[in-house]
Design a protein that fits this description.
alpha/beta, 7-stranded mixed sheet, two-stranded antiparallel sheet, globular
Length: about 220
């Protein structure tokens, strides 16, 4: 099987193993926030497709991303092009029922910007759900590569150029090191530091911690399925 097809079946397909994990996580979110379908949610760093495919969709969704907004946006959503670590006043002046972020915190660019991201999460609403991959899961999730996150930058960069299962093609050294330096997986101590008033939930696969989720909810968060 060609590498891009293998990645498709492992991660990108709607029937892939990763897609099943994403659906389990979405179900966990809906059970933790049982009034989700009535909420006004801001998604920091996400994409509109997450919510168009969701089994439980909030009443309103505001997506904020560095990408250019799509041409067609449904009437239940709005999309802004902005930096979640440096949000404009038109966004920070608003309040939301839930602040959501999925697999973004590891890409914002270092400790200082993660602090600013966490401040933005707390400033936009009283409740939040912030997920990020766990550093010590044995498979690096962006490249689907065993132990890649533990290598020195030089080796990770060389690996990123040659490993066929990466999330984006990297044919040059510059492109590879850019991706490597903008991907920094976090551990539990870091998540507790950034979200000291939140409960840190652990998503597990085969008993191993796969991702961490900082949650603030009205009641106790629902245990993982």
């Amino acid at each position: 099987m060609r590498p891009h097809r293998l990645r498709f079946h492992l991660v990108d397909s709607d029937r892939s193993w990763s897609a099943r994990q994403r659906r389990r996580r979405a179900d966990w979110l809906a059970r933790t926030f049982p009034d989700l379908e009535k909420m006004h949610v801001i998604d920091l760093g996400g994409r509109l497709g997450t919510w168009t495919r969701a089994d439980v969709r909030p009443a309103r969704v505001h997506v904020v991303n560095l990408e250019r907004p799509p041409a067609d946006v449904p009437d239940w959503a709005e999309v802004d092009r902005a930096d979640a670590c440096d949000l404009p006043a038109r966004i920070t002046s608003r309040r939301y029922d839930l602040v959501f972020s999925n697999s973004v915190l590891e890409h914002v660019g270092g400790h200082e910007r993660r602090l600013r991201f966490a401040d933005a999460v707390r400033g936009l609403g009283d409740r939040h759900w912030v997920q990020t991959p766990y550093r010590y899961f044995p498979i690096e999730p962006h490249w689907i590569a065993p132990g890649m996150q533990f290598l020195p930058v030089r080796l990770r960069t060389a690996f990123a150029r040659r490993w066929p299962l990466g999330h984006k093609p990297t044919r040059t050294h510059e492109a590879a090191i850019h991706q490597v330096l903008w991907t920094e997986l976090l551990d539990r101590s870091q998540m507790r530091h950034y979200f000291p008033d939140s409960r840190i939930l652990v998503e597990r696969v085969a008993g191993l911690p796969k991702s961490l989720i900082a949650v603030r909810a009205d009641g106790p968060p629902v245990p993982s399925p």
